[in-house]
Give the backbone structure.
Amino acid sequence: MNRRRKIYEGKAKDLYEGPEPGTLVQYFKDDATAGDGAKHEILDGKGVLNNRISEFVFTKLNMLGIPTHFIRRINMREQLIKEVEIVPLEVVVRNVAAGSLVKRLGLEAGTQLPRSIIEFYYKDDALHDPMVSEEHITAFGWATPPELDDIMSLAVRVNDFLTGLFMGVGIQLVDFKIEVGRLYEGDTMRIVLADEISPDSCRLWDIKTRNKLDKDRFRQDLGGVVEAYREVAQRLGILVENDNALTTGPRLVQ
Ligand code: TMP
Ligand code: ASP
C-alpha cells in the first residue's frame, strides 16, 4: 500500500510523495492524541471516517469556489492533494463558547458568542501551540498582512458554509480549526485550505440532545468516539444507516 516515500509523519495523518510533481498523498490514521500527544489511543475506523467526512466537506468547498488543496479521494484512508507550503498557524473559528475559550475567559460553555471570533495559534508542539495575535504573525513573517486578510476571509467563508451544512443535519457547529497553505501555480501564489475538516478538528453538538459528536469524546473520556464520528457521517449522507462497512473493512469498495 505505502511504497511511496513518507515525507511527513503527523499525529493523525501522514503525508507521502504524490504520483506527480506538486501532489501529495494524505493518509488518515486511526491514532487519536490529546494534550500534545500525552494521551494516545488507536480508535479503529476513525481514519476511514475522517477521510470520508473531510472529502465530503472539501469537495463541496471546491464546488463553491473556496480554494482547497483537495484533489480526490484515492481509497479508504488516502486522498490526493496539491502540495502547499503550510502557514505555521492553527486558525480557530468560534461561534459558541467551549474548550480553551471557556477556561481563558471564564465563560459558561454553550454560550452563544456575540459574533464569530477568529483566533490564531502558532503551530509549535514544543511550545504547545501558543495563541498569537495578528501583530505577532506579521512581525515574525509567518504570514504577510494581505495573506492574513485572505486567511481570515477564507475562515469566515468556511464557517458560513459549515454552519449551514451541519445545521441542516441537526448539528451545531460550536468551533473548528483549519490550516491553510500557499499554493504556487506558475507565477501566482494563493492561500488555500489545507489539512482536514473532520470531527477531530471541529466541535459538533447535537442540536436537540446537546450530545458531543466530536473529539471532545476522546479528550474527556466520554467513550463512543468512533460511533459519534459515524453518526456525523451518516447524517451527512456519506454512510447509510446501519452501514458498518467503514470499520469492518473489506466490504467498503467505493
Ligand atoms: P480549543 O477550545 O481547545 O482551543 O479548540 C478550538 C477548536 O480547535 C476545537 O474545535 C478543537 C480544535 N483543535 C484542533 O483541531 N487541534 C488542536 O490541537 C486544538 C488545541 C484544537
Ligand atoms: N490535537 C490534540 C487536541 O486537540 C492535541 C494533540 O494532538 O496533542 O487535543
